[in-house]
Amino acid sequence: MIEIRDLHKSFGPLEVLKGVDLTVEHGQVMVIIGPSGSGKTTLLRCFNLLEIPDKGSLALNTIKLDFTPGAKIPQRTVLSLRQQTGMVFQSYNLFPHMTAIGNVMEGQVTVQKRSKEEARSKALALLDKVGLADKAEVYPHQLSGGQQQRVAIARAMAVEPEVLLFDEPTSALDPELVGEVLKVIKQLAREGMTMVIVTHEMKFAADVADRIILMDNGVILEQGTPQQVLEQTKNPRALQFLNRLSGEE
Ligand SMILES: Nc1ncnc2c1ncn2[C@@H]1O[C@H](COP(=O)(O)OP(=O)(O)OP(=O)(O)O)[C@@H](O)[C@H]1O
Ligand SMILES: [Mg+2]
Hints:
The protein has helices spanning 40-47, 75-83, 100-110, 116-129, 145-158, 175-190, 202-208, 226-231, 236-248; strands spanning 2-11, 14-24, 29-33, 55-60, 63-67, 85-88, 163-167, 194-198, 211-216, 219-224. It has 249 residues and is an alpha/beta fold. It has 2 domains: 2-84 and 164-248, Rossmann fold (3-Layer(aba) Sandwich), CATH 3.40.50.300; 94-160, no CATH class. Adenosine-5'-triphosphate is lined by residues 11, 14, 16, 34, 36-42.
């Protein structure tokens, strides 16, 4: 359902993605791990064209894009791709002047042209799903980080994307709030939501992932099931990364 081939991306002289190939099947949870600076965020941002790749191709269902340096992607294509990819950022990025329910209604009204009543009832159902039905009318600053992140997940889901993209959804949270967010993501996984998740939470990764991708220095070092990548890799650099992580625990 998502196919990425030979994806390249540079920032000036710095080549950050050096030919990435990957496939995400419908209903699959793919987790991306790897050292800081290896290109995980950049790769994720290429999925919804927050970064435009220099070379390679990206296909999401019927949308197929070939990238060449300097070529412009039509705005229409960018919008239709974004509509199918809900993004959840590390820092939630909720609209501060809107209530929780306002945040979850916004995209439905502006992008999907739903009526306010329809958007409101859908938003309420989603807030209920992430355990926040009672917080619908409060503003982001009145919510904890974990609650804000759950509103952000509800907001990302509200436009019914094909895939949800998460960039370290718990790394800005106090440790005691991490669990409530991971629980929501695990529930979505059980319901068959297609997701691509960048995370440093290895136990969560092992638990939720159908496939894990280990990136290093702009390439995929290892990919496979959690067991294959986390327990059976023989790649020295992958082992070095994983050993360093387990040393930190
Ligand atoms: N907009 C940008 N302009 C210039 N360089 C950038 C830009 N975005 C990222 N980079 C560089 O690209 C490299 C990869 O960054 P990226 O954010 O993708 O890494 P990451 O794997 O997500 O790291 P982390 O685990 O720390 O989040 C880094 O060297 C970073 O400095
Ligand atoms: Mg990152």
